[in-house]
Amino acid sequence: MTDRRKELLREYKETARPMGVYVIRNVENGKCFVASSINIPARLQRHQFELQNGSEAVKSLQAEWREFGKDAFTFETLDLLEPLDTPGYDPRSDLAELERMWIEKLEPFGDRGYNASPNSN
């Protein structure tokens, strides 16, 4: 491996990935799925892969992907979380709070979305 290639690989590994809250929207019926991730681009790519291959864990989302097709869905970032410059910082609780706020705002349950209702245990 050349020195330049090693340097580029190291830079890539050290680059912070965008973390925050994302939404998958069905533009045909307005339903959405809201979640958070420490690496939004990778998580959205995984959702797309799973939907295309019929292995998405959110079964209602998978069913409507089959019904409406991939062109009926958009994948968007709703909010980014800037990591704190604190040694040992774990963003999970901050991400969970940000996700909770967006879920409260969008209410993606039942006829409005694919998230599990907070009342369904």
From TrEMBL:
Please list the residue ranges annotated as the GIY-YIG domain: 19-115
Q: Which residues cross the membrane?
A: none
> InterPro entries, alphabetically?
GIY-YIG_endonuc, GIY-YIG_endonuc_sf
**Signal peptide (residue range):** none
Instruction: Read off the CDD domains from this record.
Output: GIY-YIG_LuxR_like (cd10451)
Domain of life from the UniProt record = Bacteria
The protein's name in its UniProt record: GIY-YIG nuclease family protein
